[in-house]
Amino acid sequence: MNSAEATEPRLPVLTSFSGIDGAGKSTQIQKLCERLSQAGLSVKQLAFWDNVVPLARLRASISHRFLDGEAGVGAPDKPVRRNDKNVRAWYLSLARCGLFLVDALCLRGVVAAARKGGADVIVFDRYIYDQLAILPHEHPVTRVCIRLILKLVPTPDVAYLLDANPEAARKRKPEYPVDFLLQYRLNYLRLQQRAGLTLIPPLTVDEVHDAIVRKFESVSGLGIVGQTSRRMVSA
Fold first, then answer.
1. What share of the chain is helix, strand, coil (3-state, %, to 5)?
2. What is the pLDDT of residues 21-56, one digit of tens each?
3. pLDDT digit string (tens) for 47-96?
4. Helices H, strands E: what count in the chain?
5. C-alpha angle 231/232/235, rounded to 5°?
6. I need a labelling partner for 90 at 20 to 30 A (CA). Which of 16, 33, 67, 84 fits?
7. If you compute the radius of gyration of the chain from its CA atoms, what whole number of angstroms results?
8. What is the value of pTM for the model shown?
9. Which DSSP symbol is given to 117?
């Protein structure tokens, strides 16, 4: 491979967004995908819960039924009381380890299929990291599970972790108690160190978007301001 070829990006670029509820993932995914499309790049969007998790509806239904939580997504004018990932009994953590191992294997297949689909960029709304952030990282058994799963799953080219103040996030999306969100955020920060996630601090919407774009360009080699799609090059 000559020097000119070496500077060409290898497509598709696998990208993921993670963070606590209310961190602004949906907004930033939409802004990035619009920016990529304007640059002439084809984008495939995937949602971890909808496109990866097997029996997602059944799992959600069982969770709501046995943990006595409210369904739906919280909004400032319509708060809900969720009881699912914030319930951290030991037997639930053990069951989740098994379920998340299955999710990891499914994720391998979904990513492999998406990479063959011809898109320039694959964008995941949540990734396996959002599952692992639920587990109690202070327990040795779950730490072993986390390390195993991280070895099993495809590593994104850029994995964004959108940081957020838990109190502010809960005001935007009132679903879980603040004390859970504080622990949830701490687990994300632990994963950021273990898995090399790109931490985006809680700035304004436009500042976060600019930071996301800069990181994307530096990792992918694609300039996405006024640029057209580049052809995939072989490994």
1. 50, 10, 40
2. 999 999 999 999 999 999 999 999 999 999 999 988
3. 999 999 998 888 878 777 777 777 777 777 777 778 788 888 899 999 99
4. 10, 5
5. 145
6. 16
7. 18
8. 0.88
9. T
